[in-house]
Amino acid sequence: MTRARLSLPSPVKGLSVRLLVLTIFFVMLAEVLIFVPSIARYRLSYLEEKLASAHLAVLALEATPDQMVSEELEGELLDYVGAHSIALKRPDRGKLMLMREPPGPVHASYDLRGAGAFALIADAFGSLTSPGDRVIRVVGTSPHQPNAMVEVVIEEKPLCQAMFAFGERILVLSLAISLITAALVYVALHLMMVRPMRRVTASMTRFREDPEDVTAQIQPSNRTDEIGVAERELASMQGRLATALHQKTRLAALGIAVTKVSHDLKNILASARLVSDRLADSGDPDVRRLAPTLVKTIDRAVHLCQQTLNFTQEGPPRLEISRFDLAMLVEDIAGEIAAAQTSDSLAAGPVVNHLPTELEVEADRDQLYRVFSNLLRNAVEAGATRVEVAAQTHNGDLSVTIADDGPGLPPRVRDNIFQPFSGTMKQGGTGLGLAIARDLVRAHGGDITLTGTDASGTAFQIELPRRAKTGRPRRGPGSDDGGNRTRTPSSELRAAS
Fold first, then answer.
1. Rounded to an integer, what distance in angstroms lies between the CA atom of residue 484 and that of residue 323?
2. By residue range, what is the domain housing residue 59?
3. pLDDT per residue as tens digits for the range 345-358
4. Which CDD domains does the entry link to (predicted)?
5. Rounded-to-integer distance, Cα 67 and Cα 95, Å
6. What is the pLDDT of residues 101-152, one digit of tens each?
7. Strands across the sheet with 447-454, in order?
């Protein structure tokens, strides 16, 4: 199936535009937070100027002998201040007033003495949201004489107009600052982050489409920041992955060739095996003496071809779950090994089975037979005189230890013991046994590990769940209809393995 080609988003829908919009939004948000105390401060300054102008205007009364002025002059003084009435109170003197008829009743009164920040902010927004035709009374200390109290009655409409004009100036200034800041941030982020990230993304897309194309791999820059580290790590990963894919392609082609050669070679060796059987009936005693050696050599070659074909053709293990006694399975394998020692005169000791007879597991009996048979036979063929099998349970899982007193594994085998075609020390071996055994154990939800090896012996540990994690148990070959365990014939188990 052809995968759709990925395309990078356009600059309008890309990360740069999002950064631009976010920058404008955050700058405007900051300006709003600045505007709230600024408008309250502007209103306070406006009212304090009114109080200062009122103080200067009312001082004109002190220049007259009777502290009175004409109505015409009084009107001019009130117009200069923009107030309907002015009153000045001082502790050491009397009260001075300038007054004319207000256009209506006083709607609100504000005392600037000791007003807190939140009260000033609330009063400022109250003025902005008012109808605009109110008459207000303002009381505060005179800026020119701290011990003098000034009281004025003014119309609120000029104050609201001045506050809205101030807000418009703040808005224009905020927009200008936001756009300039956003443009600078946009250019900086685009050059430092967005463009390098688009380059990395484009390289990843090209590499995904053709991993073996050398030109698709990214060329890291000399940056020392996180993006530079990401570029170098991506280049390293692409190089290793391309090398691995190239090797796997060559190994796949080699595997196909080996499979074809092994298949043809197996047929040739089968014919040679039939001919070699007749050599045992030869009248020449030297021929009869050498015939068994020749037959065994051909059998090992056929077995090698068969193992190679099985490994290349087998898919994931298919399990047939059953409940059976694990100790009985080990006893069957031990009996076969003992019989093989007697017939082949091999110098190897018996298998010591420490598993309890009531140790039942839910697993594929045939597949576990292959696993334990491979480990036990390997130990015996390596020269072990004693192989012990023991087990312990932990949180419902089973841990089986297989330890022998053999000569141990050499380092070259130890490092590749579970790798196909690598982890073998037998002459003519394929190194597939332990690789297949580990695949079978992992198919059951467990694992097999090499826990130790030295001159005193080797130990493997098999972790298995006591109960199958998938599938339903069936009555296995080791159980009869009444639930009593019965021993499966060794010949049947050999055929299954």
1. 11
2. 15-178
3. 444 447 899 998 88
4. HATPase (cd00075)
5. 10
6. 766 788 888 988 878 888 888 888 888 888 878 888 899 988 778 788 899 9
7. 351-353, 387-394, 397-404, 457-465, 447-454
